[in-house]
Amino acid sequence: MSKSFSSSFPNSLFKKCSVSLILGLEFSALMLLLGNGGNVPWLPPVVVFSVIGFFLVSSFLFPFIWHFLERKKTINSEKIYDVLYGVIRYCLAFNLASFGWKKFYGLQFVVPEEVSSMPMKQQTGEWLTWFYFGYSHTYGILIASIQIIGGSLLLFRRTLLTGALLLFPVLFNLTLINIFYEMNAGALLQSVLLTIGVLFFILLDYKRLVAFFFETESFLPSGYLNGFVKNCIRFSALVLSLLFTIYLTSLIR
Question: Is 149's pLDDT higher than 50?
């Protein structure tokens, strides 16, 4: 990776707006985490949402001021980019590590006994999800470890992309769970914002990723079959597996 993230892109207004907006979103996610749903006495909701509102408005206005001053050659944009990227990485790492530590200390995946004793059909998707994930303490520790380790990797320039690639599938899966299992709005918002932040850093290196996954030569032998025959064999894996599944269904019925 280059010495500075900003050297990979032209200093356009669009880039400034995207970086500033991502920073506003990730800082908002951090504030929501610190507020803990209004349970922290020294950080009441009115303070949390006031700070978030101020920061989001600033994130919309700052790029235009930044772009204007850059054209006047009164500021060093590269240093500003590096500072903003650093703050985004810190917000993501803090947030992810916090969720990881919560699992270690039993603050997540905990279901009250009066809820867990209810019949499954009477429980909400949220409680069913928490009960399922909380059933295996080892699995919870594994997810927590990925969040903590992945967040730590984001803090270092050389391991940033590795951390982002490690975290993205986990965060994206959690986002889908939060959506389709009807988790609370706070959990959904956090997962969406964290996923966006990690995806943002992945997209900064999209050229290298495209080259790595699609332009490098395979070590596998090319074989002797022509392209049409190969594609027919590949397609048959999908068709035959579907037919086998239909056959199994007919046996059950």
Answer: yes
